[in-house]
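Contributing new records

If you add data, match the layout below exactly. Sequence lines come first and carry their own label; structure lines follow with theirs. Keep one chain per record. Anything else will be rejected by the validation script.
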Amino acid sequence: MKQREYDFVITLKHPDYKIYNLISVLLCVITTTAAIYALLQSWFYSYMWLNVLLIAVVVTSLIIALFNLNKKESITTFKWALYASAFLWLLNPLHQPFIGIVFIIAALLERQVKFPQEIGFRKEGITFNTFPFKNYTWQQVKNVVLKDDIITLDFVNNKIIQRELEPAELTEEEDEFNEFCKLQIRNSR
């Protein structure tokens, strides 16, 4: 994919990820419990030491993630714990490939869910960095206003998108941004 230059990039306020984090922790705890139980039942055969290593990875990843959970400057992810949990489900003694695949999908989706949502503005149009990308031309837009950390996009088809921004995002450039958008909408007519 070609890298694009944007005149303005606005970061939207991210939602509270508590429910996603809770689900990730519960999935990893359930996996660790099941793996330890299965290992105890199998008397730690020699090929099971990989499972012990994976359990250690899950527990270590969870501890690190939980310590970082309250830090405001970063978004905590559980992807390594989920990947290690997936491999525990794929290997013996658990060996439930379907559950392992579900964990791999959960780890991949967590990345997409927690990816910072941004809107890029350039002379050719507006781009939302969702999956898949959403592109709008200036002909599709009736008005764009940034005021008090809220962006409002009013489309010609009467669709309105209104989102809250991260604090202190573009507050100094608010007037410049609004003028840029007005100019682009006027030039597209």
